[in-house]
Amino acid sequence: MRYQLNWTEESIKTLNQNTEYLARDWGNQVVNDFLDRVDEVLELVSLNPTVFPAHNAVTKVHRCIVNRRIILYFKIVDDKRVDLLTFWNTYRDPNQLLK
Length: 99
What we know:
This protein has two helices and five strands, in the order βααββββ. By secondary structure, it is an alpha+beta fold. It has one domain (about 5-95): 2-Layer Sandwich (YaeB-like fold).
């Protein structure tokens, strides 16, 4: 059974921010490689989100490393739906993640 992936406004915003940065500073090939990796990760999350470690077991938030600088945080809502929360850039202040 597949989980439905629900894109939050924050997940859309942070994916776009990361993609724009890559396009501006690294070029289209790096953007394409990054988006291919995002597609791979989303496929894995939709198939079995519990395979990824819990970031916070109480809130059912998990994390998935997209690449060495980007971590996808998502929440397992129920047995059918996963909310994508943010594509966190590890260069950002980790205290901001809690907000």
